[in-house]
TrEMBL record:
GO terms for biological process: dolichol-linked oligosaccharide biosynthetic process; polyprenol catabolic process. It is an enzyme of class 1 (oxidoreductase). GO terms for cellular component: endoplasmic reticulum membrane. This is Polyprenal reductase. The keyword Cell membrane does not apply. It comes from Hapsidospora chrysogenum (strain ATCC 11550 / CBS 779.69 / DSM 880 / IAM 14645 / JCM 23072 / IMI 49137) (Acremonium chrysogenum). GO terms for molecular function: 3-oxo-5-alpha-steroid 4-dehydrogenase activity; polyprenal reductase activity; polyprenol reductase activity. InterPro entries: 3-oxo-5_a-steroid_4-DH_C, Dfg10/SRD5A3. It is found in: Endomembrane system; Endoplasmic reticulum membrane. Keywords: Endoplasmic reticulum, Membrane, NADP, Oxidoreductase, Transmembrane, Transmembrane helix. Residues 175-305 form the 3-oxo-5-alpha-steroid 4-dehydrogenase C-terminal domain. It is a multi-pass membrane protein. Pathway: Protein modification; protein glycosylation. Its EC number is 1.3.1.94.
Amino acid sequence: MDSVLSLMDHVKPATPAEACQAFYVFASASILGINVLPADLRSALMDYGARLQGGNQKEPGKLAGILGLLRVPHSWFLHYYILSVACSGFWAWQYLTRGSVMEWLVKGQVRDGRESVELLRVFVAWGLMTLQGMRRLYESFFVMKPGSSPMSSIHWIVGQVYYLDMSISVWIEGSGAILDSWNGIESSRRIPPRLPIAIGLFLAGWIKQNQCHKHLAGLKKYTLPDQGWFQRIVCPHYTSECLIYLGLALAAAPSGKIVNRTVLMGLMFVAVNLGTTASSTKKWYAEKFGPEKVASKWKMIPFIF
Ligand SMILES: NC(=O)c1ccc[n+]([C@@H]2O[C@H](COP(=O)([O-])OP(=O)(O)OC[C@H]3O[C@@H](n4cnc5c(N)ncnc54)[C@H](OP(=O)(O)O)[C@@H]3O)[C@@H](O)[C@H]2O)c1
């Protein structure tokens, strides 16, 4: 008993960054697990939007049938971006007013050591995340063509947790710098190395994704997208999403490191999640338009996937 108690003394509680990372790992592992379930269950949990509208849908089993009853509209993606923008605003307000929620998280994080992302990088990463949330919100209202396709309510819930988690991930490793600035300690004003490259990658993904969404919105539902990156990739809007989070992971890198580990784990989740959906999309297009139409296209990542 004593040895168990002394072992417990050495177990450190997780920092907020580790808690954020744990969600990404758990969610990624769950998606990989879902991929080996029977096809009807996998589809009920993972497929959404256009992929559920066509194709050779077989009669689902009992559990898949129940999950099918718990669907919400695909257009509820809108809620992700309302949440994302609201969270960005909330954290800005918390920073400016030394709010108790941010202070609690920041103090929990610096327990692990004072190694930190520079303040300028924290502001840039926060700003880029806000830009992404705002553009997606704008697109949800003014660009995307309304449809009646569904998605699983579990998918919708996981998405909400993801955007909440990511709103914290972009600044949590900068807790030391945030605390210093609250305590009046001046931060460096020099442009950190590689930051312009990170911003460039983010903007390339940001602009490209908007072009992809405009193209999808201009299509008759459901036809084969064939312009720009769609000529070579089945889901270039997902490629763009990966570029966006790669840019963010580089922009928010702590001093002496190339990437921000927490955002990188978020990118891992994005890649696993969207990679699964890109596979379903390619299969659905092949069934609907003929395999030859998509055979030569990458699903999401050129030369790799
Ligand atoms: N960070 C993350 O983890 C994450 C997760 C999911 C998505 N996202 C991002 O959110 C954005 C939207 O993703 P999504 O999965 O919703 O994309 P999607 O399934 O391709 O759908 C996007 C829009 O295009 C329409 N559409 C799709 N294929 C079409 C076709 N062949 N013909 C006509 N219209 C078509 C859809 O219509 P319907 O509404 O009728 O289906 C929907 O309005 C992407 O940029 C993605 O990167 C991010």
